[in-house]
Structures are given as structure tokens and as C-alpha cells.
């Protein structure tokens, strides 16, 4: 069973971010003013409608499985990885900075409710006025918070001339270069904003993205979205390292959430990193997402020995080749020259590390009799110029694994710093 | 926590279905004769490689979560619904009946291993010869059986002249008629064979379909596949009825697994139903699958009152309109004339019932800023001519819900009877 995480103290009453009172919002709902947009400048968690039935969704269920929303950093980065992912990238269609601010304020209020396991909006799924659309779509009623986290970032395209943010673009938020053998689909790449929803129940994650999409209507639209699965559904410290669709353990060398020194050094943007209008990003991070199609049929015809030489670890235990245990210390230079683990190792990359929280995906078929499956790679880092870009450059050139991979989508975002009580997502950027 | 289901007694040693000894198979592996096809006429569960580490995948984990494979009926029909689905339809590319038999024998042996939580093939993921491809792809190592069931059926197209099965086509295995407002995608519909994989961990279900796909190489290829989520991850009898993406409880009126009289009457094909060469189907069932895209954005703009009038139940409790409790008895004729529950009710359809085990799906976006989401409808029944076809005919004509739905894929299969010890899937059909 999942450990009992203390219920966040921030969940009731929710702090309206835009100064709209509960009474005002109810009046707006009653007037029929709330259509697809759901809310005006503020949305209030339905205080009386915390989901209360018994859990039905595995170890992540239970009303206690709440990850606090507020904090120095956004949740969903150093948070113990949840079982399921729904990731969405949005094109902002708002035409003014005020509209963008109101969108992020509304998202914040909804995120406070959703991550606390509450229905969104006054009345929730069923408690509103019968002649108005329910403020919550209802499919996550009874499913609790299930450790839901919502993590939001801004892509390079948000810093064009639409919202007066060009000067606030961090120097580290560079456009990713083209890598050899990239096969990127533009409609499935990039986006002004991204939202990573992770939870121990897929329906909770999907409900969250759907809710934010609904709230965004008229101000932002989903550009592309990706479901993922395959991480541990409990935070049991004894749980084995999850395996990717090549059958190998994936994430062995990830920094631990408790290793704050490494996180500060490698994941969180530090105040000294950016100056002036871009200083807002301190406390945030950079996310690189890559949809990596795996040619599993080809891989499956490869011998065990070759698979292990390509990865650099044994398939069973996950130990580095020549060692006995998964977590044994090793010298990357002793691994095969083109092995994935050697090339990606910090010692071969100036000490650079990324915090990876990728998910497996399976999206039907490719029309050729093969499953369209792979890894949706998500990596957080302090500076993509020092981490993802050089590491991927080396991998794309030399990695024996590349033969079995095809990067079909890509994006990079500056992930906002954490939200303080009463604040909103991106406030550090937009209040400059 | 999931109840402790007794471990099946059929799991070790697995019974080779094709008469190939373990020694013979190992020899074949060593000779390099096993490539993409993985196995010859028989595959043996790796007896020493039952997954043994501690569970990491929620309430469905644990080595005891095994649903027996053998029995009078296939598992995965009356089995308590698992949390996750991977469904695949296959085109048979084999050109002889013997090849088709060998495919189904190999699938049976693999299914015995997979549903027992074991790795497939001699050596499993890591215990084989280093210079041969592993017989198991490995991504489900450590994940246990997780209540995996594999349920296999034959579509109308299997009964053409390729395998001499035309005379064995059951009279009840009719081609589904076109319904008003169908928007079927042919490449995502039908298929000679179908496999429904259900488990309480998505990776276990995906691994199973991948494994059967791999085994089928050269004899059958995936035509289309669908992932689903959103059912209860435990068999806790107190768990609330799951909700679909319209936010309503879905499955309230489903026959219970313990209601064997109803199952015999409505779900299992009875010996009296078919004669002669088609008599093999007794003990089987008919599966109708429909991928139903839901226009959730339109639905979400509809008032609570209209939603409830369209469905015929209250959104919160799931009670029939005018009643207090979800499971209250009600007269369907008292519900709104075009409500879904009224039109689909057995009393309006000559007593016909289906056993539904549909799953929610979310497949990225539709390219227009909307989530491509809905219900993957799966319904088992004794005779589609008396159940799905008349019910769907009435719904397509009158159902107020139809306005919000689009059927994008469809298929019907005669699901094989259960497999006795030592038998194989479809043996009743193919040994005629």
C-alpha cells in the first residue's frame, strides 16, 4: 500500500487567484455567462464536494494520496514517479497578455482543486444549477487525488511578440538543434505551453488535462497530447526499477528526490543562472520531451548478448556489464564504446545529469502490422545547453541503440517555478 | 487490496500443446532456428522464471493475482473487470489450416504462461543462450500476472475459403449491418482473429499482445489495436461503478459474474444454438467491439438537466431518474422516451442483455484542438441478432445520446469456448 501522505493543508478553502468571490462566481454561473470557458477570472474548488467514496483505483487511491500543489518548486518533477501520464501541449490563442494571465490564474485554481482530489468549479459535477453545464465533467468522481501532479511550462514560442515577453526569454531556453535521424512530426511537437499530468490512475490524469483544456477554451487549444504508462504505481521504496519496452530497467541512475544537492546542481534553475527580465525562471527547470518510437520487432530479433552490449547493462539485474548489482558503482569507460549507458553517463558529459521521468506508450499500430510503441522521454534539467543537447548529440552520433529508435516528436519548455500560496502559475514571468 | 485468488494449478509445468518437448525446444533455440517466429509447434513456459520480485503495480500486483486460464469458458468475459485493456485484431497471413492450428497452439502455450505471470519460452527474458534472442521481451518481468486474461475469437472473415471453415461459420456470426451515423474506419475494423488482453497493469496487457504478435510473425499480423483504461483496479465489491467520459456511471445493470443463470441465458452460446459443423461454438460467446468517439466538448456545454435526461439516470448517484438509489428497480417506460437507459433496457428489447466490459480511451488529439477520446465498447452476448443488432438499431434511430457519439470502428467475433487442460484455443473449431 502507498504510504499515507499527509493531506495538503492548502486544499480547502481554495484561494481564488483572480479576486472573484465564490458568491460572484455562483452568480455568473446562474446568469448563464459560463459556457465553454467554464470560468471567468477565477475558479473556486467546490468545497463541499471532495470525493468521498471508497477508492477503486489501486494503491494510489485513498483520500490521503495528495501531493501538495504549492511550494518552492512545482510538483511532478522531483515527486516520486506516478504510474500514469497524460501530457498535453497547447497553442495559446489569447491575443492579450491579460487573457494569458487570466488563463494561468484559472488553471492554477483548477490545479489546486484537482491535485487535492476535489471537483472543480462551484457545484462540481452535480451540485450546480440544473440548467447550467456542470463545472466538473465528473469522470474522476470517486477516484480521489491519486497523487495527481500538474506541471506547467512555457515554450520558446510564447516569448515572441504577442505578449511582450521577448526580453524575458531565458538564455537557456534555446531551440533544440536538429539531430541526425530525427523524424519529427511538427504537429506533434513544440507548443506555447505544456502541462504534464501524472497520477496513479489514468482517468485522474486524463480528467485533469480535459479540465484544463475546457477551461482554456477561447484562450488556448490542445496542440498535441500523449498518454503514457509503465511506472511503478506505488512509492514503495523496495519496488523494482521499471522497465522500458526493450525489457531493460530504465531510470537506475536517476537522482533521488531526497538528493537535494544534486537537484540544485542539475535540475533547478539557480538565481545566478539568468539576469534581468529572465531572472523569473529561478526555481524552475527545463523540460525536454521526446516521443521516441522504438522498433521493438527489430530489437526482439536481436540476441541477448547484443542487447546487453548495446545498452551496457545486463537485462536481468540491470547491473552495469561486468558488475553484479544494479546500483554498483562503475567506470563508464569500461563499458562498450557505443553503449547507451556509457555515452549518456555524467562522467562522459562534463558531469551533466538529467532527472528523467519518461513513460512507455503504445498508440495502436503503424499500419504495417507493428505496434506503434516506445518511450515518451521526459527529462528535467537546469540547462539544456549543458545536458540534453550535448548528451543527445553524442547519442545520435555514436549510440548503438539509435538504430532501434526514431524520435517522432520533440519539445522544450521553461518550467515555471513553484507557486506560493495565493500566487498563480507563471506569475514570476507575467508580473514582471 | 485485491482478494487473494488461489494460484492456478495449471501454471507449472505448462502443458506443451503441440507435442514438442522442452528438450526439443531448447535444441531448436540453440540451433538458431527460432527467429521472429519465436517458437515452432509448441512453446514452453520457462518453469524456473516465474516473476518473483515484490509487486510494484498497485492492488492487482502480487503473485497470487492469477486468473485461471483453463475452464469451460474463456476467462476475460465473466471475469471481474480489470483496470486496463489492450485489444488487438489480427489478419491471418498463414496459408494453410495446419499453420493456423500451429499459431493457435503456440498462442495457447504462451497464454498459459502469461496469465500465470511467467515469462514465455525456454529461458524467458534472460535465461536463454546469449547468442539467441530472448524468448520473452522482458518488460513485464517483476509485474506478476496482475489478473491478466487473454480472450480470443474468430471473425467472419476467418470463415472464407482459405482454411476450409466456411461450413463451420455459426449462423449467429452475422456481419453487422450499417447503422445510421456510423463513421467506421475500415483499417480499424474487423479482423480474422481478435485478442482481448485485460490486466490490472497496462504494461502486463501490452506485453501480452506484443508477445502474441511476435509469436504470430509470418502467420498473422496486427490489423489494428486499442488501449483502454478506466475500470476498477480492484475487485473490491464495495468499489463504486466506474464512470465513462461523460461523467456517468457505466455498467450498473451489467449481469454479475455470479449470476450464472443470466450468463447461460444471455452470454454463453448453448449447445442447442448451432448444429452440425457450427456446433463447436457452444460454450463460447459473441463479442461486438465498437470504438465510440465521444464529442466531449459538446457534451460539456450541455446542462446537467439535459445530460440526465439524455442518459436517464442522475449524474451523481447513478439512480434511474425519479429514484433514489443506483440499483433501485425501475420501469424503463417511465424514463424519457429518447433516453439511453430506456432504449437499451432489456424490457424494451425482448429481454436481451449484453455483458459489457468497455474501457475509456484517449488517443491524443483530433488535430482540431480536441482530445480524441471516448468509449471502447466491448459487449459479450449469446446472439448478436437478438442483442447488439436490435438494441443498436433502436439506439441509432432514437437515442438522444447519439448526437454526441460517433462510431469509428467495429468488429464482431465468435469467441472460442474455454480451453480444457492440454487443449488449445479454437480446437473445437479446428479439429472438426
From TrEMBL, chains A, B:
- As recorded in UniProt, its EC number(s) are 1.11.1.-
**Keywords assigned:** Heme, Iron, Lyase, Metal-binding, Oxidoreductase, Peroxidase, Signal
Q: How is the cofactor bound?
A: Binds 1 heme b (iron(II)-protoporphyrin IX) group non-covalently per subunit.
- Cross-referenced InterPro entries: Dimeric_a/b-barrel (IPR011008), Dyp_perox_C (IPR048328), Dyp_perox_N (IPR048327), Dyp_peroxidase (IPR006314), EfeB/EfeN (IPR006313), TAT_signal (IPR006311)
Where's the Dyp-type peroxidase C-terminal domain? 241-419
Compartment annotation:
Cell envelope
**Family per record:** Belongs to the DyP-type peroxidase family.
Query: What protein does this entry describe?
Result: Deferrochelatase
Amino acid at each position: 500500500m502507498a504510504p499515507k501522505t499527509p493531506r495538503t493543508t492548502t486544499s480547502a478553502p481554495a484561494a481564488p487567484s483572480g479576486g472573484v468571490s465564490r458568491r460572484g462566481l455562483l452568480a455568473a454561473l446562474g446568469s448563464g455567462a459560463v459556457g465553454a470557458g467554464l470560468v471567468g477570472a477565477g475558479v473556486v474548488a467546490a468545497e463541499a464536494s471532495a470525493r468521498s467514496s471508497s477508492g477503486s483505483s489501486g494503491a494510489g487511491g485513498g483520500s490521503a494520496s495528495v501531493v501538495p500543489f504549492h511550494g518552492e518548486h512545482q510538483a511532478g518533477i522531483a515527486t516520486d514517479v506516478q504510474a500514469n501520464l497524460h501530457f498535453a501541449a497547447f497553442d495559446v490563442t489569447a491575443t492579450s497578455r491579460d487573457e494569458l494571465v487570466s488563463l494561468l490564474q484559472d488553471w492554477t485554481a483548477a490545479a489546486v482543486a484537482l491535485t487535492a482530489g476535489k471537483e472543480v468549479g462551484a457545484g462540481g459535477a452535480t451540485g450546480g444549477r440544473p440548467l447550467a453545464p456542470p463545472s466538473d465533467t465528473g469522470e474522476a468522481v470517486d477516484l480521489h487525488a491519486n497523487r495527481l501532479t500538474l506541471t506547467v511550462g512555457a515554450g520558446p514560442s510564447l516569448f515572441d511578440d504577442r505578449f511582450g515577453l521577448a526580453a524575458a526569454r531565458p538564455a537557456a531556453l534555446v531551440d533544440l538543434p536538429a539531430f541526425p535521424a530525427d523524424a519529427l512530426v511538427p504537429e506533434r511537437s513544440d507548443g506555447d505551453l505544456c502541462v504534464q499530468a501524472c497520477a496513479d490512475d489514468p482517468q485522474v490524469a486524463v480528467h485533469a488535462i480535459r479540465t484544463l483544456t475546457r477551461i482554456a477554451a477561447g484562450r488556448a487549444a490542445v496542440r498535441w497530447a500523449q498518454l503514457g504508462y509503465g511506472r511503478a504505481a506505488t512509492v514503495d521504496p523496495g519496488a523494482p526499477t521499471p522497465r522500458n519496452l526493450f525489457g531493460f530497467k530504465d531510470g537506475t541512475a536517476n537522482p533521488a528526490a531526497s538528493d537535494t544537492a544534486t537537484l540544485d546542481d542539475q535540475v533547478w534553475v539557480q538565481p545566478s543562472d539568468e539576469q534581468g527580465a529572465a531572472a523569473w525562471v529561478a526555481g524552475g527547470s527545463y523540460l525536454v520531451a521526446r516521443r521516441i518510437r522504438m522498433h521493438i520487432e527489430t530489437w526482439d530479433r536481436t540476441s541477448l548478448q547484443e542487447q546487453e552490449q548495446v545498452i551496457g547493462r545486463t537485462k536481468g539485474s540491470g547491473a552495469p556489464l561486468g558488475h553484479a548489482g544494479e546500483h554498483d558503482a562503475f567506470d563508464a569507460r569500461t563499458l562498450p564504446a557505443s553503449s547507451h549507458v556509457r555515452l549518456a553517463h555524467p562522467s562522459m558529459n562534463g558531469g551533466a545529469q538529467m532527472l528523467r521521468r519518461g513513460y512507455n506508450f503504445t498508440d495502436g499500430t503503424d499500419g504495417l502490422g507493428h505496434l506503434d510503441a516506445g518511450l515518451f522521454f521526459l527529462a528535467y534539467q537546469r540547462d539544456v545547453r549543458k545536458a540534453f543537447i550535448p548528451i543527445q548529440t553524442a547519442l545520435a552520433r555514436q549510440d548503438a541503440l539509435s538504430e532501434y529508435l526514431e524520435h517522432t516528436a520533440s519539445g522544450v519548455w521553461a518550467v515555471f517555478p513553484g507557486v506560493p500560496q495565493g500566487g498563480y502559475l507563471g506569475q514570476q514571468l507575467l508580473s514582471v
